[in-house]
Every structure is written in C-alpha cells, then in structure tokens.
Amino acid sequence: MTLILEPGTAVAHAWWWRTEGSSPDPRDLALLSENERERAARIVHPPTAVGFVAGRAASRRILSGLLGVAPAEIGLGRRPCPGCGDPLHGPPAVLYPQSPLWISISHTTGCGMLAVARVPVGVDVEGVRDFPVEELAPATLTESEHEVVLGAEQGGARTWAFLRCWTRKEAVLKAVGIGITTDLRAVETRPESAGPVVVAAGVPGTPASWTVADLAVPDAWAAAISVPAPSDGSVFEVRLREHA
C-alpha cells in the first residue's frame, strides 16, 4: 500500500464497505470528531446517519494504514471550494497529518466508499432502486444521454443506464470539488460506452478534462470514480478492494 505515497504513481485506490443496522456503531462513533458526532445526531434518516458515521470511521481506518497514524488522530475536513473559495463546502481533505493525498467519500443505503489518489479524485456510489427516470431525465441528462437512457428497455436496463450517467456526473463534479451545484445537462458522460471515458466539467481553474470509470461493486449498487485526464494520454489505473 505504500505505492500510493510515491510521487508520480498513476494509481487511484478505492475501497467499498457494507453498512447495516438502525443506529451507528459505537466503535465508529468513537473515531469521529465532536463536530462529526453532532452532525450525525442531526441526521433524521437512520440509514443516512449510519452511512455517514461508518464512512468517516472507515475512511480513518483506511487512511491510518496509509499514513501511519492512529485512526482517531486522522483529521478530516475540507479544501476550499474551487468555485467560490468557501472553506465550508469544498471537497473533503486530510487535515492531519500533512499529506499529499486527495480523498473522496460517498455513501448510500447499505454501502460506503473511499477513493484516494495523489491528484484530485471523486467517487460516487448509489443504490440500485426504482427511479422516476422519465421525470428526472429532462433536468439531469444531456440530449445524447437522454436518447441512450430512454432508449433502454424500461425497467432494470433503463435504471442502470440512468445510474451510469448519474454516478459518472457526480464522481466528476466531486473530483472537481463543487459537487452537484452545476447544470448536470452540461456534463456529457457517454453512457453508451463501458468506459473509461473523458468528461469535460467546464469549471474555471480546474482541469478541463476528467477520466471517469465505472467501478465493479456488487450489483445492489452502482459506482464511478474520476481523476484528471492524464495529459500524456496514459491510463490511470484504479485499484478497488473491499474494506471489511
């Protein structure tokens, strides 16, 4: 795992884990900061609270192995937003110890993920469930995405096509550092391609092109990861593993 700390390593690492239960695990809560515990207490939807707490705890345990610091000592916060400079809603960051690593955290019912790289990185995971695709498509999909998604057979195939678009968009925008705060119809993810694909986000001051790849998580979920597209055209390797 020390390879991730070596300069010039063209690798993004991603971990996924299962979450369950109706309340956060006390062992996970013990690893959170006071502010994070207060935030968790304000979450009214139990699965969301469980996912948030498990995500912060799992991230600290994983980062502990990478950085050689006890999990409880890992300081998590945010980088300034690249769009407006606000330090309160930028991408997540390791505040302690000082590190060259970029991180991204995502969770949905039953599953959480962490991505780590030496460059900006974004990861998104979503549960596979019934979506009102026809209602969501006009506000979220480009014209070509709309044709691909609505052209898929109604039911599971259409849901998967929509989730491929959605997770790719969110992974790219989380890597950019702004999240879902822009017009999603401006982000073309080429769902007809199994990927990886190159996506333009169009945010000033950030890389013009991003590589995004789907992740092979269990079929109950869909996930994607994104990093800046290498300028030399090389392939950015993704290593995915389960965190127990």
Architecture overview:
Helix content is 30%, strand content 25%. The chain has a four-stranded mixed beta sheet with strand order 4-5-1-10, covered by helices on one side. It has a four-stranded antiparallel beta sheet with strand order 6-9-8-7. It has helices spanning 26-29, 34-42, 46-67, 133-140, 143-151, 156-176; strands spanning 11-18, 75-78, 92-96, 102-108, 111-117, 122-127, 197-200, 209-215, 221-228, 237-242. By secondary structure, the protein is an alpha+beta fold. It has six helices and ten strands; from the N terminus they run E-H-H-H-E-E-E-E-E-H-H-H-E-E-E-E. A hairpin with a 5-residue loop joins strand 8 and strand 9 (221-228). The protein has a single domain (10-242), classed as 4'-phosphopantetheinyl transferase domain (Ribosomal Protein L22, Chain A, Alpha-Beta Complex), CATH 3.90.470. The model has no long low-confidence stretch (mean pLDDT 89).
CATH H-level superfamily title: 4'-phosphopantetheinyl transferase domain
CATH domain topology = Ribosomal Protein L22, Chain A
Number of strands: 10
Order of helices and strands: EHHHEEEEEHHHEEEE
Specify the CATH class.
Alpha Beta
Structural class: alpha+beta
